[in-house]
Design goal:
Oligomer of 11 identical subunits arranged in doughnut-like structure. This protein is an all-beta fold and 73 residues long. It contains no helices and 7 strands. Bound molecules: tryptophan.
């Protein structure tokens, strides 16, 4: 499968930001949830197990496609 090894960087801008990994394959479901407090960071990759990442809460997100902020009104 064509897959890059790029990392994505998530920096929480409030307490209780959730970073949720969703499965790759025929069913797409949550398989991992990580809670970040303000200013904590997570550096993550897409893997054979993880096809999508959902972020709940306010966080700065950097990817190869650019930088954006989640959780803004
Ligand atoms: N063990 C998981 C995996 O290899 C861990 C993981 C990778 C993950 N990327 C993630 C968890 C992104 C949450 C978000 O797929």
């Amino acid at each position: 499968m064509a897959q890059s090894n790029d990392y994505i960087v998530i920096k929480a801008e409030e307490n209780g930001v959730n970073v949720i990994g969703l499965t790759r394959g025929t069913d797409t479901r949550f398989h991992h949830s990580e809670k970040l407090d303000k200013n904590e960071m997570m550096i993550a990759q897409f893997t054979e197990h993880t096809s999508a990442i959902k972020i709940r809460g306010r966080a700065k997100v950097q990817t190869a496609h650019g930088e954006m902020t989640s959780g803004e009104d």
